[in-house]
Amino acid sequence: MPTYKNHQQLMDAITGDLILVLEGVGESLVAMVKESVEENVYFPPPVRRPVRYERLGENGGFLGSWTRSDIEFSLDKGNPSLKILSDPNLMRLDAENYIHGRPGEGGQTTGLFGEEVDRRENMDKFIAEGIEWDFYPPQYEDEESGEKYMEDGDGWWQQPRDYWTPFMALVEMQFQEIGRREITNLGLKLKGV
Questions:
Q1: pLDDT tens, residue by residue, 46-104
Q2: What's the pTM?
Q3: Whose CA is closest to 148, among 138, 156, 159, 140?
Q4: Taking the domains of the chain in order of start, what are their residue ranges?
Q5: I need a labelling partner for 109 at 20 to 30 A (CA). Which of 74, 103, 151, 175 fits?
């Protein structure tokens, strides 16, 4: 058992352990939100694969953009801060191929009304709420039959694909268990558990 010579050494040890616990909790939450994105955005039934653009998944796609913030915490200030977020900088932009954006008018990328659009900053909102899609007509391939088709008007891809609500429901059910697991992974014991 470690021995602490003064109050500051004890506080440093506690802070270090709490940060490690929060890092582990954060990584678990990122894995959970990615699972929800896969189920509710990438593969909701019926599974349709876009033809106009390539889904990049973990390699520059919306799925791979999920991460956790750095942990801000000190015992004297209290209330640790940890955010789970979609980082737009982790998504690849290829507007010409409709990956997280769209090309300008007539394929131009410059000039009035010809500016390409970068959607990475708001992809999480656009997907969850089903808004701001303006490339027509959408073209998809049915995952089971392989049949390619065009959708007119408001296609399924313009409907909300809520990945956040199922994620939060899972967090509410499992948060205490995740915290306990991360604490015991450090070799710490919880009283009354």
A1: 666 666 677 888 999 999 999 999 887 766 677 788 899 999 999 999 888 878 887 77
A2: 0.76
A3: 140
A4: 7-185
A5: 151
